[in-house]
Design a protein that fits this description.
The complex is a heterodimer of chains A (483) and B (208). Chain A is mostly helical and 483 residues long. In chain A, 78% of the residues lie in helices and 1% in strands. Chain A has one domain. Chain A has 21 helices and 2 strands. In chain A, a hairpin with a 4-residue loop joins β1 and β2. The longest helix of chain A has 32 residues. The two termini of chain A are 19 Å apart. At the A-B interface, α2, α5, α6, α7 and α9 of A face α5 and α7 of B.
């Protein structure tokens, strides 16, 4: 493997790192109002990354840096979607953070560092790079949650996130060390081969697997490792909540598939059983607890837990349908969650957070267009046709049934029906209740345009899901199943 | 059981004991010192694994620098011990049961394993340079991971500065740079005004 291949395949990561360092210095030296220059530089960096990712795309799977890094179709697709999600996050959160005095250079730099972590996770082919990517992401997120220093609730959220995150990293590392002891390697492909053909002790492997799955579940935020999710989503400033709830889910999908499918495929009958328990418990507790919430951010936190349960359903079904539908679900979830948190930020203003159910009362009278966008997003989260959320749920259920878990599909449908209640309650509040306040909604032009695009994308993708679905199916086929 | 195994068990037992004392010691100072003991005994285990460089680094960096800093911090902070130990006895049965259950399960699973079936580590001669080999690996096979670890440190630095550096509005500290760079015009204001006429009568009134 020569130097040029290494540089080419990791071009986007290297460019991003160089640009983040440049932005870090430029932010210090350039006098600017409202961090406009830093913000534009960040958006240009994201654009540059996507051009490089498209430009350096090669057919097939390329390994680089002594097999620590892999460049395949799945990684390219997921990275492009990550850039898009981060760019949308920056647009949505600019006004919200500016009026709160939080739109600082550090926020933008840490967000880009978090994205570097996601990219490393997406392209990892080695337990070491998986872990380092995860830590790059987590460390940036802990700091970002704590950035609002005057808020006691944000500091508490950051503390809980940090302590539980460190515990989860410990579990993950312990599991990895067991797998290393049993197989003698940290490289995913070698581990997989060693398990398949080697003489590694099955008990030891399963012992390591339990810890790896627990660490993974912690990071995904699925029951019973979900306790941090509501507190962090609620306590963090909404822009940070949006960041945690959007793009990292793509990286988490990549992380889970790289470890479980590429590295531990021979242990599939063990981990799919564990995932069944995690998925059912998440869908049950997530959907039922969300009903009791009056704070919207907390409600979305429980809804995330339920959605992550759905994502695991696709993973445990296996095959192109299973992994493809799971990836599709992750992409769709990111789109919906960006829109939902974006709406909370749009309705917020100086000194006021629109994060309770009452704030959405009578939104239709105050702004019919925004209410319609929220309706589309909520329908999609609930899985009402013709929005894309329906198709995402449908394709996962299809994969589950094809894998032969009929009862699992029935349970998933039941819990989705329970979950539909609290999404539709928001629609009811918006359209059939009288507004509590008549404050004008001051929306920046860029975020107003973006929320329209976001809402309509949910509808359009629901009507024409074929293209995105086939991209997901082809990329998992090329990346996960062919070698 | 050969001599190496005996030494391993001594160090392992010492590490577990020290780690337990870190969380059970009443005095935070003792807890920090037990953490030092845990680091030193685990560096002994690393020596047994022929990772001499890492073992020495652990002692130098963690014990020599980080833990000393820890000691200073603990001494400077006014830690309320009563509040720290609040609810300890209340939650102890629950926590102890859970921990005991986990240890029992782990022993049960791992107890039945005779050999891990992996590759035995190669024994090297006395003149084998561990440091050189580590350096070679870090800058060749693992250069990607090494660079990422460096980025991790950069993030930690940015995060630490972002979280701790902020100017308080009511701060009374002096800014030496500003004081040095001060110009005459910043301090002295020259006001041009008409010279006043002296009125003797009023002055004498004031004197009275």
């Amino acid at each position: 493997m020569d130097l040029m291949t290494n540089w080419m395949s990791a071009g986007a990561e290297i460019f991003l790192l160089v640009m983040v360092c440049a932005i870090l210095i430029a932010d210090l030296l350039i006098k600017q109002s409202g961090r406009l220059v830093t913000y534009m530089l960040a958006q240009i960096t994201l654009l540059g990354c996507s051009l490089i990712t498209v430009g350096t795309h090669e057919n097939g799977v390329v390994y680089a840096f002594h097999n620590l890094f892999v460049d395949d179709l799945m990684s390219d697709v997921l990275k492009l979607l990550t850039y898009l999600a981060m760019s949308m996050m920056l647009v949505y959160s600019r006004q919200y953070l500016t009026v709160r005095g939080l739109f600082t250079g550090e926020f933008i730099v840490l967000a880009l560092f978090a994205m570097l972590g996601m990219m490393v996770m997406i392209s990892a082919n080695h337990f070491l790079s998986l872990y380092l990517g995860l830590e790059l992401l987590s460390l940036s997120l802990y700091a970002m949650v704590a950035l609002q220093r005057d808020s006691a609730i944000a500091t508490e959220a950051a503390m809980k996130y940090f302590v539980l995150g460190a515990l989860a990293s410990g579990l993950l590392l312990y599991g990895m060390s067991m797998l290393y002891g049993a197989t003698g390697s940290l490289e995913l492909g070698v581990v997989s081969n060693a398990i398949q053909y080697g003489v590694a002790d099955k008990n030891l492997l399963v012992f390591g697997l339990v810890f790896v799955v627990s660490g993974l579940a912690f990071k995904l935020g699925v029951v019973p490792f979900h306790m941090w999710v509501p507190d962090v989503y609620h306590g963090a400033p909404t822009a940070m909540t949006m960041l945690i709830g959007s793009a990292p889910k793509l990286a988490a999908f990549a992380f889970a598939t790289r470890i479980l499918v590429e590295g531990l495929q021979p242990l599939v009958q063990h981990w799919s059983g564990m995932l069944i328990i995690l998925a059912v418990a998440s869908m049950a507790i997530g959907n039922i607890t969300a009903i009791a919430q009056t704070n919207l951010k907390r409600m979305f936190a429980y809804s995330t837990i339920a959605h992550m349960g759905f994502l695991l359903l696709g993973l445990l079904s296996g095959g192109v349908e299973g992994y493809g539908s799971s990836m599709f679900y992750a992409v769709v979830y990111v789109l919906m969650s960006l829109g939902a948190f974006g709406m909370i930020m749009l309705l917020s203003r100086v000194g006021f957070e629109a994060d309770t159910l009452n704030d959405f009362k009578g939104l239709n009278q105050r702004s019919p267009w925004l209410a319609f966008m929220m309706l589309l997003l909520m329908f999609s989260m609930a899985g009402v046709p013709p929005t894309v959320g329906f198709y995402a749920k449908f394709s996962v259920l299809n994969a589950v049934v094809q894998a032969g878990h009929i009862w699992l599909a029935v349970a998933a449908v039941m819990f989705s029906l329970i979950g539909a209640f609290y999404y539709l309650r928001i629609v009811k509040l918006m359209y059939f209740d009288a507004p509590e306040s008549h404050e004008p909604i001051a929306v920046g032009q860029d975020s107003a345009l973006l929320i329209s695009v976001n809402g309509l994308a949910v509808l359009l993708l629901g009507l024409l899901p074929g293209a995105l679905m086939s991209v997901c199916a082809v990329s998992v086929q090329q990346s996960l199943l062919l070698h | 059981m050969n001599f190496e195994t005996i030494v391993f068990y001594i160090f392992a037992a010492l590490t577990v004991f020290a780690a337990l004392r870190v969380i059970t010691a009443r005095n935070p100072m003792h807890a920090v010192l037990f953490l030092v003991l845990a680091f030193i005994s685990s560096s002994g285990i690393w020596l047994l694994l022929e990772a001499e460089f890492l073992a020495i680094t652990l002692v130098l960096v963690y014990v020599g620098a980080v833990m000393v800093l820890f000691l200073f911090v603990v001494m400077m902070l006014d830690i309320n011990l009563v509040r720290l130990r609040e609810g300890f006895w209340r939650w102890l049965p629950f926590g102890a049961t859970l921990a005991g259950l986990m240890v029992f399960q782990m022993v049960w699973v791992l107890g039945g394993i005779d050999s891990i079936g992996g590759i035995e580590p190669v024994k090297h001669a006395a003149d084998y340079s561990n440091t050189k080999e580590l350096g070679r690996l870090i800058y060749t096979d693992y250069v990607y991971a090494f660079e990422l670890a460096a980025v991790l440190l950069l993030i930690a630095m940015v995060a630490a500065i972002a979280l701790t550096l902020r100017r308080r509005k009511d701060s009374r500290s002096q800014n030496v740079a500003d004081q040095v760079a001060v110009k005459r015009n910043d301090r002295v204001r020259i006001v041009k005004m008409q010279a006043e006429q002296r009125v003797t009568g009023q002055l004498s009134e004031n004197k009275e």
